[in-house]
Write a structure and sequence with these properties.
456 residues; Helix Hairpins; six-stranded antiparallel sheet; 11 helices; rod-shaped; 2C_sensor_his_kinase
Length: 456
């Protein structure tokens, strides 16, 4: 029940709750630490007692009085032990004597005279009865010992004081452990809350690479859970739309073949004339467009299986260059062998060469260069035409996109050739790119794996 209530809460409320809890834990740790251990250092305590020494000794009387010592101990929170040849006593049972105390400090210098004191006669000394002060401890309890002549006065606090430096470091380490534990716990909870973001990032990257089958795990009802569900719905809708578009394109293209076949048959019975020739040319162009549409639809569907065979890129391109309507210069390496579908690759490079011949000046050769790298074969098709405007380069491989907005058949086809070339390259596990420096023509680069397309 608690887990469900937590998972259904807003992400921002979760963050606020965690920050409040962490702040409370840190503050509570600090307060508890200083409440338990924040007592002034031993030396400061000693200096405080040292400053009050001459008042204490004066109040104890001469000889020292046990009753007055107990009264002063209750007022100041101190315990006294007086040791002298005449009289010795302690205001608290169990108070160690001077022989049992382990002293670890050097004698403190005598206190300066009280402010405003001036000697009343020659040779008079200031009223400071203490000549030596030493600090030590016994059984974990701090002591300060003052001597004057044969009398020793031991003073020990009745409140807890840090015994030694190691204990202080131990408690400081405990404080750091408590604060660090609280922060680590907060980090672990935040990491668990934001874990769906890593999956969402990976899913978005896969979609950007063209994988629309990715599906994210759907969490609770917070913002990240809603985002994961929206992402899955988006990819599902995109897949459905693409499938519907491909199916429609395939069906329409297929159905258009029947009326085109009847039109071609009817043209055969007409007498030869200019209208018949023009109409036959239109029918052939429409048939070519439908053929490209069908081929594009096949490559997008599960029926577009490639017929792979061992090919030699130089031989494949040499035949296309020889059948081309213009001048072609082929530079190919002898060992440019790879696995591919010859029919579809002829269409790919045929479309590229057709565009290059169309946009190159008369008599200027189109350059085709084949290069090999480990695992890849690369083909560059370069023309010497006017080039492609930079604004059109990002959309050049889109279906039906034409640089010439008039869509005249004299300056280009239907805008399907480059789109189909890209699909064929991708079907082989490769890529196609274009570069066109201003006024220097265009260069299309096709990169194909020598081992053929990866297994689905």
């Amino acid at each position: 029940m608690i887990k469900r209530l937590w998972s259904d809460r807003s992400l921002f409320l979760k963050l606020i709750a965690i920050l409040v809890l962490v702040t409370f834990a840190v503050n509570l740790s600090v307060v508890l630490f200083f409440h338990r251990f924040s007592i002034g250092p031993r030396k400061a305590f000693g200096r405080y007692v040292q400053g009050c020494t001459h008042y204490i000794l004066n109040d104890l009387g001469n000889p020292p009085s046990l009753e007055r010592a107990k009264e002063l101990g209750e007022q100041l929170g101190l315990a006294f032990r007086v040791e002298s040849p005449d009289r010795s006593f302690a205001t608290e049972e169990g108070l160690a004597n001077s022989e049992a105390v382990e002293f670890h400090s050097r004698p403190e210098p005598p206190l300066p005279p009280p402010p405003g004191w001036t000697p009343s006669g020659p040779g008079e000394e200031p009223p400071v009865p203490v000549r030596e002060i030493r600090f030590g401890h016994a059984e974990g309890r701090p002591y300060m010992m003052m001597e004057e002549g044969t009398t020793r006065l031991l003073v020990s606090p009745q409140f807890p004081v840090v015994e030694n430096g190691s204990a202080e470091w131990t408690r400081l380490f405990a404080l750091l452990v408590m604060i660090s534990s609280a922060l680590v716990l907060a980090w672990a909870v935040l990491r668990k809350i934001f874990a769906p973001l890593a999956g969402l990032d990976a899913g978005v990257r896969q979609v950007a690479e063209g994988n629309l089958e990715v599906k994210l795990p759907e969490g609770g009802n917070d913002e990240l859970g809603h985002l994961s569900r929206a992402f899955n719905q988006m990819t599902l809708r995109v897949r459905q739309n693409l499938h519907s578009k491909e199916q429609l394109l395939y069906n329409v293209s297929h159905e258009l073949r029947s009326p085109l076949s009847r039109m071609k048959l009817s043209l055969e019975f007409l007498p030869d004339s200019k209208p018949k020739t023009a109409l036959a040319e239109e029918v052939r162009e429409m048939e070519g467009m439908i053929d490209e549409l069908l081929e594009s639809a096949r490559l997008e569907s599960t029926y577009g299986v490639l017929s792979l065979a061992s090919l030699e890129m130089g031989s494949l391109l040499r035949g296309l260059c020889e059948r081309g309507p213009g001048v072609c210069t082929l530079v190919a390496e002898q060992s440019a062998k790879f696995m591919g579908d010859a029919h579809r690759l002829e269409r790919l490079f045929g479309n590229l060469l057709q565009n290059a011949f169309k946009h190159s000046p008369a008599g200027v050769a189109v350059e085709v260069r084949v290069e090999t790298t480990p695992g890849w074969v690369q083909v560059k098709v370069s023309d010497q035409g006017p080039g492609i405007p930079p604004a059109d380069l990002p959309f050049l491989f889109e279906p039906f996109y034409r640089v010439d907005k008039s869509r005249s058949l004299k300056t280009g086809g239907y805008g399907l050739g480059l789109s189909l070339a890209r699909q064929i390259a991708l079907a082989h596990g490769g890529s196609i790119e274009v570069s066109s420096p201003p006024g220097q023509g265009a260069t299309f680069v096709v990169k194909l794996p020598t081992s053929g397309p990866p297994s689905p």
